[in-house]
Amino acid sequence: MVEFVASFIYAANGDHDRRSLWSNLVSFSSQMNHLPWIVLGDFNIVLVPSGISGGDFRLIPAMDDFQNCMFASGLDDLRFSGNFFTWSNLQQDENCTCRKLERVLVNENWLHTFPNCFANFMGLWDL
């Protein structure tokens, strides 16, 4: 039997409101020293500018907060297949905006324990 910890995320929309989530993840990570940990869900923020297609890039400071949280927590993206972008405003014209908001993050213990694990992202357009 393998023990692991799974954390399911639905982050707030506002940058300020997400800061307590980042703080909680960093604090919780110190308890994950020897356990595989997977953190998955809707983080409501992109990690890097390439996670945005269309629209504006005013999210840069919030991206830094997310990146710092991941680094301090020892979390990294799990390899994945399927759609890169996980959210869209579903417009078919020049106003189309896509984002990578959903992620599956894991710690090093997860990768060591489950080396063949990967995520598969299906978008609304696949349903």
Descriptive report:
The chain is of the alpha/beta class and 127 residues long. The chain has a single domain (5-126), classed as Deoxyribonuclease I, Chain A, CATH 3.60.10. 28% of the residues lie in helices and 24% in strands. It has helices at residues 15-29, 60-73, 108-113, and strands spanning 5-10, 37-42, 52-53, 76-77, 80-82, 87-88, 98-99, 102-106, 119-121. The strands form 3 sheets. Strands 1-2-8-4 form a 4-stranded mixed β-sheet. A 3-stranded antiparallel β-sheet has the order 3-7-6, with no helix packed on it. Strands 5-9 form a two-stranded parallel sheet. The longest helix is centred in the first third of the chain and has 15 residues, at 15-29. It starts with a strand and ends in a 6-residue tail after the last strand.
Characteristics of this structure?
9 strands; 3 helices; alpha/beta; Deoxyribonuclease I, Chain A; three-stranded antiparallel β-sheet; 127 residues
The residue ranges in which pLDDT falls below 50 over 5 or more consecutive positions are: none
As a whole number of angstroms, the C-alpha radius of gyration is 15 Å
Which fold name is given in CATH as the topology?
Deoxyribonuclease I, Chain A
**Count of discrete alpha- or pi-helical segments spanning 4 or more residues:** 3
- Principal-axis shape: globular
Largest sheet: 4 strands, mixed
> What is the number of E strands?
9
- Tell me the number of structural domains: 1
Order of helices and strands: EHEEHEEEEEHE
Q: SS-based structural class?
A: alpha/beta
Query: What's the helical proportion of residues?
Result: 25-40%
